[in-house]
Amino acid sequence: MARYLSTLDLQSLAHHFSSMTAKVEIYTKFACPFCVRAKHLLDGKGVAYAEYDVTMGGAKRAEMLSRAPNARTVPQIFINDRAVGGSDDLRELDYEGRLDAMLAESSAE
Fold first, then answer.
1. Are 90 and 78 in contact (CB under 8 A)?
2. Spatial distance between the Cα atoms of 91 and 109, rounded to a whole number of angstroms
């Protein structure tokens, strides 16, 4: 049986979502299952992020490589301009309980 969130449920969760103030960027490619998984995790936390499609290479791929020189796979995720790594790295941060703290940091810090 499906459970729907009431307005009160959403209000009680609002502090969780509104505290996510970090600047999050993710470089992706079309039909990449790891990219989908990483975005799903971020979406589940209510995180706004900028997504850059590097499927065809170009300037954004060059930008990704300049920011993370050893990166050869996607997704490549950056939180407040710090390279986090890929989908597995993001999931590990979440599992260890460190991701929410990173997401709560202001991008000005």
1. no
2. 23
Q: In this structure, which amino acid lies at residue 6?
A: S
Length, in residues, of the chain: 109
For the chain, domains (ranges, CATH) are 20-104 (3.40.30.10)
The pTM assigned to this predicted structure is 0.80
Token pair listed for 52:
């850059």
Task: Return the axis-axis angle of helices 87-95 and 33-44, rounded to nearest 10°.
Answer: 30
Q: What pLDDT was estimated at residue 21?
A: 87
Q: What are the tens digits of pLDDT across the range 10-26?
A: 555 554 554 568 999 99
Element (H, E) at 77: strand 76-79
**Is the torsion defined by CA of 89, 92, 96, 97 positive or negative?**
positive
Cβ atoms of residues 29 and 76 within 8 Å: no
